[in-house]
Amino acid sequence: MIVESSVSTPESDDRVLRVEGLRTGFPTREGMVNALDGVSFDLARRERLGIVGESGSGKSSLALSIMGLVPRPGRVLAGTVTLNGRPISRFGDERMSRVRGRQISIVFQDPLTALNPVMKVGAQVIEALRVHQPRLGRAALRRRAVELLDSVGIVNPQRRIDDYPHQYSGGMRQRVAIAMALANDPDVLIADEPTTALDATTQAEIVALLQRLADEHETAIVLISHNLALVSEFCDRVLIMYAGRVVEQADVPDVFREPAHPYTQALLGAIPTSGSSREDGLAAIPGSPPNLLKPAEGCPFEPRCALGQGKEICRTAKPPAVPIAGASFAECHFARPRHGAGVSASPRDETRTVGS
User: Fold this and answer.
1) Cβ(63)–Cβ(192) under 8 Å?
2) First CA to last CA across the chain, in angstroms?
3) pTM for the whole thing?
4) ∠ CA(55), CA(177), CA(84), 5° rounding?
5) Where are the domains of the chain?
6) What fold characterizes domain 2-103+186-273+283-354?
């Protein structure tokens, strides 16, 4: 049995997605790997939320858990996911398949593996439409597929609709994946590292495309990324994840101006600046992320933390979620409210029990 608490950010009547106390595990011969350890957040309509952290922090596990796509033998152990007021984490596969693509969609990191290599691009876009709009006839489906390809910037979509994925560049394949994800005007789009496999120019184009389409469709977007610069340009609010937990939540300007958690500070410190030279080298966070088979007794970041390393309280006690400003918080023994900032009730003051 685990004691968790809820994080409330947007106003309840404007909330499209709510994640509460989400725990996801992957059983191994050595024990359970706790990929998510009580993740909670809210997402408002039309909001752009960034989720940032190192590899292994739980970002992709969070996306898969929300979508009901955790690969077996992994499973969601506890917590709820509520979409438009409905607890979709309790849906079975058949019922969830009617929600995916219609109310909530996902764009994966590698579009080459997301697309079927032996199906024409148009057939795959049409399939995404047909599943949720079965009354559309063949001509209407093809016409709509061409419109979608055109909307994401595919040149000459009337011809390219009959090409196969290998005939598209990486950036074009990602555009197709985005077109499929937005085909049925979902309320929420999860973009899991959508620009990682692309060159810098194509990355910028994809981000601009997401911004335009989000505005046109009024879609809330969860952008999962390790790229803090991208998050700073695109998102309204950011969650910093470490060891399967949200260790800091803040509005984007605040987290870049005054990061509260030592891990967030270390991530920002590792970003090259325009004034740095090759001789300066890149700042790096010492050590490695923790072993999720053996959860830390205290703060999981303590062995790598310049502020808390070696301190008894950090080794032995779980850090509280300290209110920073408004609904922002940081899970750190040494976090303090920002000077002059109004602080709401603790984002985790509504303690509840989640059974495992």
Assistant:
1) yes
2) 6
3) 0.86
4) 80
5) 2-103+186-273+283-354
6) Rossmann fold (3.40.50)
